Amino acid sequence: MSYWAYQVPESVRDWLADHYPFKFGEHRGDHITVCLGDAFPEGWPVMAAIEVCGYGCDNGIEAFRVTVNGRLEQPRGIPLHITWSFDPLTAQAKDSSRLEFKKIENWVAEDPVRFGARLMHYSPEKDSDE
């Protein structure tokens, strides 16, 4: 199924990986899903301000909680997040939408991690890894 998502810049992913190493064998950290399908998500800007504001880890999956231009949820009510890593024997990337996110303890940045991201359309026909 195709989906719309904000692409996490490689520099941000690298910074997060340096400070928060992946806990599980399958790594992600490349996008923030907004909605499923081909239709453009109305009301969501092509360029957005992203802020990392929480973290969740449970049952073989971890993710960062984010805001997109201050929004906390996808249109269907799922928390906006960056799937960070997962154990492919016990979890799938989509399981990160069920995590309970908490404020990040011992955050290494004095300020929250903020970055700009572009809204992209991903399609299984074009992208075989999602």
Biggest sheet architecture: 7 strands, antiparallel
* Shape descriptor: globular
Number of domains: 1
* SSE class: mainly beta
The tally of beta strands, per DSSP, is: 7
Low-confidence stretches: none
Radius of gyration: 14 Å
DSSP helical segment count: 1
Query: Mean of the pLDDT scores?
Result: 86
Alpha-carbon distance between the termini?
A: 9 Å
**Range of strand content:** 35-45%
Q: Numbering strands along the chain, what is their spatial order in the largest sheet?
A: 2-6-5-4-7-1-3
What is the H/E string?
Answer: EHEEEEEE
Helix coverage percent:
under 10%
Description:
The longest helix has 10 residues. This protein has one domain. A seven-stranded antiparallel sheet has the order 2-6-5-4-7-1-3, with no helix packed on it. A hairpin with a 2-residue loop joins strand 4 and strand 5. The protein is mainly beta and 130 residues long. The protein is 8% helix and 37% strand. The chain is built from one helix and seven strands; from the N terminus they run βαββββββ. The chain starts with a strand and ends in an 8-residue tail after the last strand. The model has no long low-confidence stretch (mean pLDDT 86). The protein is globular.
Helix/strand layout:
Layout lengths: L2 E5 L2 H10 L6 E2 L3 E6 L10 E12 L2 E8 L12 E6 L27 E9 L8
Antiparallel strand pairs: 1-3, 1-7, 2-6, 4-5, 4-7, 5-6
